[in-house]
Amino acid sequence: MAKELLAVRLVLDAPPEKVAAALDKALLHGDPGSLQKEDLPMPDPILLEWQEFIRQDCTFSSEALRHGAKDVERHSCSLGLRPLCRGDKASPLPLQPFDDFAFEVNLAKRAASRIRVLGRWTSSFEDDSAHGFFLKVEVPFGPEYLQRIQLSQLCEVKRSSVGSELTRRLLCDDFLQQTRHEDMKDSTVAIARLHSFMIEIEARAWAICHGFALIESWRGLREDYPWALKSAENAVAAYRFGSGHSGPAQKEVWPLFDTGRAQSLSEGLFEMLPAVCNKRMELQGALQEGNVEVESFASLLDRICRRADSCADIFRRFVDLGSGRGMAVFTAHALFPFRSCVGFEISPEYNESARLLAQWYVKEGFANGMHVLPDLMFIQGDVLTEDWSDASVVFANCVTWPSTLVAAVARKALRLRPGAVMISGKRLPSEAAVMRGFDFRGEACLGDWTPYAVELWVYQRIIISEFVDIKYQNI
């Protein structure tokens, strides 16, 4: 039994049987695939999310993003799935006790790493079980790479609602335990951060090599190691605006909601806003006004809800914390089959304008024939005292909220059911309980308070055991 430190979960548009076969080829035969290049391909933007960012004139450079990743990649080595580029070579090693397979990967102009497969388990994928491996990876370290450290890793694939999930888990072995309280500039922390980043980049390059389209990339942190948290946050932030955190599956028809209806709703709400409020309220601090754009927010909800597992019951209830004029609630209610949509707003002025808009919303036929009571759709209340634990999707446009309020909401979000999703305008705090309770990825959405896309963090509620069962008692 071993504790899990961090996890990277890639959702792939490919059958799990095909991904498992490629995984077997890489880890049982030392053949992760090859690329006729000198370096790993850095992930290109996935168009649908990238378009959310470039719909307005902005100066963000995808080339700068990829250049930074390549600079990191030059100092890394193989962790087991890295495709072989020009000049690289993989060779089998003599087996030691408990080895299923062992091989060494020599990268051109870099030191070699050694991968030992110490355990494996198979699955028919007829249930929720996984097909995977337990690895020990020796990587070079120190001056002239004369020292070696050992990293323990689980690598497994399982079926998902849109294809398969490839998960790589870094375990808290002896070396990583020593880094828990080290300074961020310490050399051991630097090597740990490097490989915690490359465990994702390598897997993404491997997926590209085998033609597995990447749909989503999730990060999870299970222990409060400062360097691991920073590494995970940087990985998500660096790719938030369009390199694989959310993209389309090939078999998906995009989008699933009615775009014409979304446009009509957006235009109607925009026209009605002046009628329900004399002017844009100039409130300060946490109550500053900011409304999401209907079509952009609908695309975000579409990306999130279509990939949810059936057990998550994702259309159970939509809740907007700090709902303002109600744009997010109207979008969720009009365009998606949520059984309940509600917004909580502490400002009486904002809440009253949302209720007035709700009357227009019903009159214009956007309620889909459902009986809508504005007083129940928009509730004046405190997000910390109201009960939203049964929500399946929670939105908190908390860009202006103080950190203390965000932290309190994050702790309350731990009451959400497994599979529930929270969309946050700010990163949730790095408290151990919060980190263990969620996987997270980046997103983007347009709002009326800025000409640029707004960066968002998407958190998926998970339940994990304290220890990872690595299947074999003798490991």
UniProtKB/TrEMBL annotation:
The keyword Mitochondrion does not apply. Residues 317-431 form the DOT1 domain. It comes from the Eukaryota. It is an enzyme of class 2 (transferase). The keyword Magnesium does not apply. Its EC number is 2.1.1.360. It catalyses: L-lysyl(79)-[histone H3] + 3 S-adenosyl-L-methionine = N(6),N(6),N(6)-trimethyl-L-lysyl(79)-[histone H3] + 3 S-adenosyl-L-homocysteine + 3 H(+). InterPro entries: DOT1_dom (IPR025789), H3-K79_meTrfase (IPR030445), SAM-dependent_MTases_sf (IPR029063). Keywords: Chromatin regulator. Pfam families: DOT1. This is Histone-lysine N-methyltransferase, H3 lysine-79 specific. It comes from Durusdinium trenchii. The lineage of its organism: Eukaryota, Sar, Alveolata, Dinophyceae, Suessiales.
